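Researcher: Let's do a round of design. I'm pasting the structure tokens now; please hold your answer until I've finished.
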């Protein structure tokens, strides 16, 4: 096999592992990993990828890789771990889980300022500077979308982006810039928390805008936030924590503040104790934490960016820097502490109050202190939590709540207070950097990445809905719009297919979608999550993206009932959502009685957090849909992103342990697939990510060039510049309005132009020389085109004259044919006139001769009339008949006249010889009788002749009409057949298109199943669960060999490549041999298609092809037009051997080579390439199958190619001259050659 070809094969833990090919199958390929010898791995063709020749080579831009696929991308990221990498203009940043101050220092900021993308190593600063320069150059606002899983480093990346913009393009680090940067610690303290996957996870999304004026300088900013995770305030899982601010209070607050707010250890607060209560500390700060502050859970947490002891001080400093007064700071901390103490209020059922609850005796102190923090009376707070006021006809009545209902009311109040507090903090942050107006802005989006856990609730549903929208935006901006631009500019780049997730978005947000159904159920008086889930399944029971929990690939999800959850197949994989809390979490409104108690507070700050509603009703719970609000916010965000230019940063989490130097390949590969980077790689294989207008490029370098060059047209200027620089034509393309660059090539071009003055002088001379040559070539081309145009005009004029003469002849023939026929018939009448003249000679009467002349004149007059006047066929026939009858009558009258003269002579003779006359009378009478009979016979014959001629003319006319009708009928039949054929072709094309769409849909479903399986494996690894595996039964070789008596039903696809080849070489069963050959070449065809797909990106021209381009093109057309393939067709061997020779281009100087092929039946037996400057390439079936043409003779189209087939003698002469016989004999001796007719000749 192709043992020298290194490939990447899938691996459960590492993502991919390196190996070599052992065997090729019909649908799969077998690879032996280098790190696991003798343990082959079988994988589908589309999951095996070619590897770099030097696997230790790393590149800064993945588009520079020799092979561009997801396996080489993953390997390059492994090699560049702790470094940042590009994929074209998209940045991939792997979280190193290590502090790297040198990488983000002020020196680095200065170094990247004003540099084009690709000039310096990949960096977040490079993307930030690109966004700034695009904003200034294009006069369009820019957005940077930072995406990735929780723990991938999105928040840190966002901070570095903002820091670069403020330090590099701000007003010397003024107040506004400081406040924009200092807002981050404050927002993180109240909006971030520790999760199992991230120690500093943002539990809300934010879009930070930095506004610039026309200069451009920073004039202000704005922060938009989305979807704060409110349930975390009241409950966290075992290894997670609440929001950081609570632990900052416990660990870092001064003693005075702690005493005033009664802050103790986290374990003493109900809202903190069920999660992880340990502090984030360093070695130094851990020593300074007194015992009364330490958590009951032994040990501590460590993170390079986190410290709870110092966190409180940082938050206070941030509050001060954004303009908050000490009083405002204390108010925020007091409300935060009130939330903590509110959670400590416990309730018990009261015997004195039927069905009601009261505060337990142990927590009355917490009630009193919470009420004091909220400036309320204890009794008022207790009554608001334990009662509901309802309006009735008799007045307001109080409804006592049970203990569980009271706990829910307490938690709802705590979540509402904290949520409104966070809203207020964001509002105050926006107030600290206001602006009147701005020219443009740069926005940085930091929002939670795609989330999937063992238990997924409403928060994960909303986050994943947001990520579906962002993925669609990514597809449209990077893939769809990119390909539309290529087509519009006429670059001819191949189309890249990607999965459109619009159906998944519609499932969630469209009318009768999941959000709509959730809102409808939430408005019902007794809303039930089971009813909601049931309605979702019923409404969308046939939707591909939705299914029931028991179809999950994870065993833990299969225990759920159908009405307890549903599975959505997202773009990143299937996620199972449990809906028991969907209705409660979707309602963002407090009961009116709880809001009323807030409005009764004497604390103006607390009251300001809850704007008072108008026309409120005490008894009614106002429903405010969280989903509807988030949908509106997300819609506005997408509109803003669509209206701006965009850059993308994909943050990658290297491992689930959040430790340094641990690279989990499978997890990273899943993140790359979820982020759409695989589709980007497909596009960038033939794409041009960098582009600029001709005029913009002209303006950028106009100042570097002399005046005589700066006056050129921008397009001509660019062409001259590129040819003078000697750039490879493959590195750039000229569109209609822009010039496009391959990844990294624009930076090379920019560096060449900004070189030293001496190099610039040489460049200017090259540009001038190219302009002279280009103008001379243009003049030559114009002259040549003028000569060609002149010759073409002369040729066309001669052709037109010839065409005109031919058409005139046809028109004249059609017009004058009846007159010509009449002329011929008229000429025949002169023969009758000659007869009449002979009779007139014997008559002495002068009238007879005059009658002859008169008849002759009439015929001539008739002929003249035909020539000079327009007559119809009927007129000419009538005139001809009239003259013919007159001629017959004249002949008859002359004969009668002649008779009269003869009678007179007889009478004279009787007088003179009366006796002689008497004797001869009877003889004369007999003679006269015979003469009369002859006359009658002549008359009869003349009449018959006339009738015959008339009938012939009529028959000829009828035949002409029938012939014309026949031609018209044949033409109609031909057109009808063409129409039917066209309809059949259209139906066939529609059927092929339908099959293609079905195949695409099937492939998309298979890809979705693969993503679901990988996601299930990741969840199983985290939660120690089990994944359902689906295995296909294997078929042994012996089972296949037993079926040799029925070749049409054989399944040869399970045989190995070597076994199939040995069967071809040894089998004597003709039908089995034909089926084996068909399967053998089908595998070769699949393998070569895989190799073509995984070809090198920058060495396409040097690769050896198995057949000339026309032959491959013919095979592609044959596959397109062929009927749907049958599984195992029986191949009929054509009689005899056939030999072919096809020329091909061999070199850059127009040299020609020849490709020779010997087909034994439908398959190739010998192949040879003759190159002008190289050693001939000789290939023999059996030994060189992987490098030979795998197509059938019919598919190659060689039999239909003119002058391609040659004689056996011609082939053998070239074969022996190139040493083919010696090579073939060596293959036979080593038992590598397949039995063919050529092999049989050599072994005789």
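Researcher: That's everything. Go ahead.
Model: Designed sequence:
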């Amino acid at each position: 096999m192709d043992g020298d070809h290194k490939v990447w094969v899938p691996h459960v833990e590492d993502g991919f592992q390196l190996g070599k090919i052992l065997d090729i199958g019909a649908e799969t390929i077998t690879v032996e990993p280098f790190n696991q010898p003798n343990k082959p791995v079988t994988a589908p063709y589309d999951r095996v990828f070619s590897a770099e020749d030097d696997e230790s080579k790393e590149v800064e831009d993945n588009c520079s890789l020799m092979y561009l696929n997801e396996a080489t991308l993953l390997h390059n990221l492994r090699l560049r771990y702790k470094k940042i990498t590009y994929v074209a203009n998209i940045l991939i940043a792997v979280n190193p889980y290590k502090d790297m101050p040198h990488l983000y220092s002020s020196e680095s900021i200065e170094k990247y300022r004003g540099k084009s993308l690709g000039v310096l190593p990949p960096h977040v600063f490079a993307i930030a500077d690109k966004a700034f320069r695009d904003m200034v150059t294009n006069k369009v606002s820019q957005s940077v979308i930072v995406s990735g899983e929780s723990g991938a480093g999105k928040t840190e990346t966002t901070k570095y982006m903002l820091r670069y913009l403020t330090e590099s393009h701000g007003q010397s680090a003024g107040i506004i810039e400081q406040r924009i940067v200092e807002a981050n610690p404050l927002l993180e303290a109240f909006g971030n928390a520790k999760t199992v996957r991230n120690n500093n996870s943002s539990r809300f999304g934010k879009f930070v805008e930095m506004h610039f004026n026309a200069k451009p300088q920073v004039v202000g900013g704005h922060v938009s936030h989305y979807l704060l995770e409110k349930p975390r305030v009241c409950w966290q899982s075992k290894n997670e924590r609440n929001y950081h601010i609570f632990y900052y209070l416990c660990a870092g607050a001064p003693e005075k503040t702690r005493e005033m707010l009664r802050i103790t250890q986290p374990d003493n607060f109900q809202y903190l104790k069920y999660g992880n209560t340990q502090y984030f500390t360093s070695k130094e700060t851990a020593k300074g934490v007194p015992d009364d502050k330490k958590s009951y859970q032994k040990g501590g947490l460590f993170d390079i960016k986190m410290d709870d002891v110092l966190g409180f001080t940082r938050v206070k400093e941030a509050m001060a820097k954004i303009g908050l007064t000490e009083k405002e700071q204390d108010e925020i901390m007091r409300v935060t502490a009130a939330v903590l103490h509110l959670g400590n209020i416990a309730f018990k059922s009261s015997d004195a109050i039927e069905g009601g609850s009261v505060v337990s005796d142990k927590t009355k102190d917490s009630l009193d202190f919470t009420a004091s923090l909220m400036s309320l009376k204890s009794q008022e707070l207790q009554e608001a939590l334990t009662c509901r006021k309802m309006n009735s006809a008799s007045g307001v009545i109080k409804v006592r709540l049970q203990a569980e209902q009271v706990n829910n009311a307490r938690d709802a109040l705590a979540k509402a207070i904290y949520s409104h507090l966070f809203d207020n903090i964001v509002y105050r942050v926006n107030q600290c950097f206001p602006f009147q107006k701005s020219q443009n802005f740069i926005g940085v989006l930091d929002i939670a990445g795609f989330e999937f856990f063992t238990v997924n609730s409403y928060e994960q549903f909303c986050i994943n809905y947001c990520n579906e929208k962002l993925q669609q935006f990514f597809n449209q901006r990077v893939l769809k719009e990119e390909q539309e631009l290529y087509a519009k500019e006429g670059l001819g780049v191949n189309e890249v297919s990607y999965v459109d997730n619009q159906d998944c978005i519609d499932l969630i947000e469209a009318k009768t979608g999941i959000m709509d159904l959730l809102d409808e159920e939430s408005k019902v008086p007794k809303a039930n999550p089971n009813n909601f889930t049931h309605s979702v399944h019923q409404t969308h029971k046939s939707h591909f993206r939705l299914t029931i929990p028991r179809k999950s690939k994870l065993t833990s999800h299969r225990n759920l009932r159908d009405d307890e959850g549903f599975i959505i197949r997202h773009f990143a994989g299937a996620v199972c959502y449990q809906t028991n809390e969907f209705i409660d979490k979707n309602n963002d409104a407090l009961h009116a009685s709880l809001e009323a108690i807030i409005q009764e507070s004497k604390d103006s700050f607390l009251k300001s957090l809850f704007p008072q509603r108008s026309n409120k009703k005490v008894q009614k719970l106002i429903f405010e849909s969280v989903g509807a609000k988030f949908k509106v916010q997300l819609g506005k965000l997408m509109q803003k992103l669509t209206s701006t230019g965009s850059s993308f940063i994909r943050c990658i989490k290297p491992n689930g342990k959040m430790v340094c130097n641990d690279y989990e390949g499978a997890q990273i590969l899943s993140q790359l697939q979820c982020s759409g980077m695989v589709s980007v790689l497909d596009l960038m294989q033939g794409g041009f990510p960098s582009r600029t207008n001709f005029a913009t490029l002209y303006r950028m370098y106009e100042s570097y060039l002399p005046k005589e060059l700066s006056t050129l047209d921008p397009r001509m200027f660019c062409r001259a510049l590129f040819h003078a620089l000697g750039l490879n034509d493959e590195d750039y393309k000229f569109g209609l309005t822009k010039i496009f660059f391959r990844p990294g090539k624009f930076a090379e071009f920019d560096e060449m132009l900004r070189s030293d003055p001496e190099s610039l002088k040489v460049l200017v001379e090259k540009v001038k020389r190219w302009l002279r040559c280009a103008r001379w070539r243009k003049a030559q081309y114009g002259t040549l085109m003028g000569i060609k145009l002149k010759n073409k005009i002369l040729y066309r004029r001669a052709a037109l004259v010839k065409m005109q003469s031919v058409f005139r002849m046809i028109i004249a023939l059609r017009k004058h044919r009846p007159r010509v026929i009449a002329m011929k018939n008229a000429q025949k009448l002169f023969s009758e006139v000659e007869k009449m003249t002979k009779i007139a000679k014997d008559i002495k009467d002068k009238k007879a001769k005059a009658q002859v002349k008169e008849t002759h004149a009439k015929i001539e007059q008739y002929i003249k009339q035909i020539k000079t006047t327009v007559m119809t066929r009927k007129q000419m026939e009538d005139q001809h008949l009239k003259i013919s009858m007159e001629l017959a009558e004249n002949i008859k009258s002359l004969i009668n006249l002649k008779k009269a003269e003869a009678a007179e002579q007889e009478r004279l003779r009787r007088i003179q010889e009366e006796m002689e006359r008497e004797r001869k009378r009877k003889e004369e009478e007999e003679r006269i009788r015979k003469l009369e009979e002859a006359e009658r016979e002549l008359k009869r014959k003349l009449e018959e002749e006339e009738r015959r001629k008339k009938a012939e003319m009529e028959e000829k006319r009828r035949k002409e009409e029938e012939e014309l009708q026949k031609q018209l009928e044949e033409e109609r039949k031909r057109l009808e057949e063409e129409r039917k054929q066209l309809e059949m072709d259209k139906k066939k094309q529609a059927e092929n298109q339908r099959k293609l769409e079905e195949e695409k849909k099937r492939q998309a479903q298979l890809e979705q199943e693969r993503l679901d399986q990988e996601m299930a494996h990741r969840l199983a690894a985290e939660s120690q669960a089990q994944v359902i595996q689906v295995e296909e039964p294997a078929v042994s070789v012996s089972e296949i060999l037993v079926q040799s008596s029925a070749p049409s039903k054989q399944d040869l696809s399970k045989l190995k490549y070597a076994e199939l080849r040995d069967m071809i070489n040894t089998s004597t069963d003709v039908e089995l041999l034909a089926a084996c050959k068909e399967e053998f070449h089908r595998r070769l065809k699949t393998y070569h298609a895989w190799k073509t797909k995984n070809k090198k990106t920058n060495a396409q021209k040097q690769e050896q092809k198995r057949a000339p381009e026309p032959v491959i093109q013919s095979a592609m057309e044959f596959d397109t037009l062929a009927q749907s393939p049958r599984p195992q067709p029986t191949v009929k061997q054509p009689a005899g051997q056939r030999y072919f020779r096809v020329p091909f281009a061999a070199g850059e100087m127009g040299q020609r080579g020849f490709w020779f092929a010997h087909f034994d039946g439908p398959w190739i037996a010998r192949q040879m390439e003759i190159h002008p400057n190289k050693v001939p390439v000789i290939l023999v079936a059996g030994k060189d199958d992987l490098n030979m043409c795998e197509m059938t003779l019919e598919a190659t189209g060689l039999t239909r190619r003119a002058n391609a087939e040659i004689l056996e003698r011609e082939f053998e002469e070239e074969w022996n001259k190139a040493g083919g016989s010696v090579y073939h004999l060596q293959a036979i001796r080593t038992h590598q050659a397949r039995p063919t007719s050529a092999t049989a000749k050599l072994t005789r």
